[in-house]
Amino acid sequence: MKVKLNVVEQPIPINCIAFSDDGQNLAVALSNKSSQVFKMPLTGKGTAFTGHNGVVNTVSWSHSNQWLLTSSADKTARLWHKTQTEPVLTIDNINNNFTMDKEGPKAVDKNNPPFTKEIKHCRFYYVDKFILLTNGNTMYMYKYHLDDKPKDDIKRYQTKNRYKLVKSLQMDRAQQITALSSVNGFHSYIVLCAGSNKSIEVFDMNKAQSVRVVPDVHTRPVHTICQNEGSTYVSHSPNAYDLFLTAAPTDGIKLWDLRTNRCVRRYDGHMNRVHSCGLAFSPCAKYIATGSEDRTAYIFDIRAGTYVHRLTGHTDVVSDVKFHPLYPELVTASMDGKIRLYSDR
Fold it and tell me: How far apart are CA 338 and CA 318, in angstroms?
């Protein structure tokens, strides 16, 4: 272990961590209604982003490395510039935010209702052109416009930042979307959703329709899907991008190939009975990392079914893991609000 850092003073669960594509920043989603951004290498304090009124579920970086997207139990998603601690855009109504006037409050519009459930997942998509959100059993795709001209103190409250719904797609047989995966580093029209009915649905965003349903992927609903997308610094053969991972409580990790619709390998040895423990492909696509409820992170060789490293020293459930996009480093996050960096250098 190279670095250990307390994100906050009290033990607060970390729900999600995400590296920016250039590897310069690490974002952390917390259960205390805030998110934080740390500059790499991990030293000192992070910058806190507060504004949500509920647990922050996920964080996602734009491909440009400038913008941060957060989703929350307060039924909103918010977009932030990495240097500003106030959100530049709040997505809280389903269709758009065109009714926002210069004073701030919005008129109530029956044709544009607010979200009724928490926003579980959010992602930038198609090299930052769109934003994807999940709410209940529906995935929403938005286009957005950000007015990033410099503003004085008065004009910054007269926002011209806009979003508009492009398409919504439902998982008809599921009550809730439990996991979402999409690629943003290059143009891909495939989006994967896992549902509370234990299935995975493959959506073709080019046609805006479901093209495949894989039933009974695990014995319990999937809590994490992870596509192999390499990194800004690594590229693979086209076939490698058809691989994705799924994980569910009590049923291990499975590696899937989109071309065959089949599970090609499974990985066991870690403990996952209740919590969502994160999953990650290494940028070289030779290794898989996962969190675990036995206060340990595990690294698997993708070609073998058993783990090659156990990373100990955590003091609570390891809730998420991420590989650095450039260096042989892994960051782990735990339910007691600590992040650790492990290095092979």
Answer: 9
